[in-house]
Amino acid sequence: xMKLDGIAAFVAAVDEGSISxxxxxxxxxxxxxxxxxxxxxxxxxxxxxxxxxxxLTLTSAGQSLLPRAQRIxxxxxxxxxxLDASSGKLAGPLRISAPVGFGILHLGPAIxxxxxxxxxxxxxxxxxxxxxxxxxxxxxxxxxxxxxxxxRLIARRLANSRRLLVxxxxxxxxxxxxCSxxxxxxHxxxxxxxxxxxxxxxxxxxxxxxxxxxxLRVNNGIFMRDAALAGLGLALLPTFFVHEEVRSGxxxxxxxxxxxxxxxLFLAYPRDHGAAARIRAFSESLRRSFGDPPYWDAA
Length: 299
What we know:
By secondary structure, this protein is α/β, with parallel strands linked by helices. It folds into three domains: about 5-85, Winged helix-like DNA-binding domain superfamily/Winged helix DNA-binding domain (Arc Repressor Mutant, subunit A, Orthogonal Bundle), CATH 1.10.10; about 90-160 and about 265-290, D-Maltodextrin-Binding Protein, domain 2; about 165-255, Periplasmic binding protein-like II (D-Maltodextrin-Binding Protein, domain 2, 3-Layer(aba) Sandwich), CATH 3.40.190.
């Protein structure tokens, strides 16, 4: 039977690139690490690492074992943290992915509050506007603006978000203000690049998709807001991007007689995740920070 200390020695040696470095990382003598690696190879009946005076090289057997060994160590670590959580203490790593624009505008204070409440959690945040697979992307949880339809995931609702059709006063003065969906299609739009049917408005028999003339396509909400502020065209954006600009008058809400499709913010994570207690605490902290209704819609 494989021993955990042999697996730990194997992963450390691969990560560090040498047995000497692995021994320093594990706080063990170099001879002990070498002995544990040798014992693991004897138990498995294969060679995992080709050793030379300069470096270690994974064999094909080692390449096959490595991801499983990493997962075993990660699950053991998660189990230890879950035991801490059951005693009222939350600790350990938490890897989160979130959209760039929302993260820049709203996650800083919220995360600061969370880490103040849970100082033993080691949070890593990566901002990315591309689609991140919460089940296989290497993150504990992914913040999503929009529906989560993946059955592999649990989705915890953080907040609702309205979407407003907005434009700069200068654009409306130059091009007129659309008063209907038909008029809207004749205007220029700043469009979100990752969704072709992004402009959806409520109608009596369902949803109507409007396709304005594209002035710009971009995959970042802050950039879209700034393009609208510059007068490039109308933009349909969540209130968390434009609530301050609408309040100040820098952007004007345009009423076309129909309500734009709203969206919700979710924190999605794989079922049976080892860090579930930390993820739940993180989601509850975000909900308290955002408020109900969220502060960007409170006015």
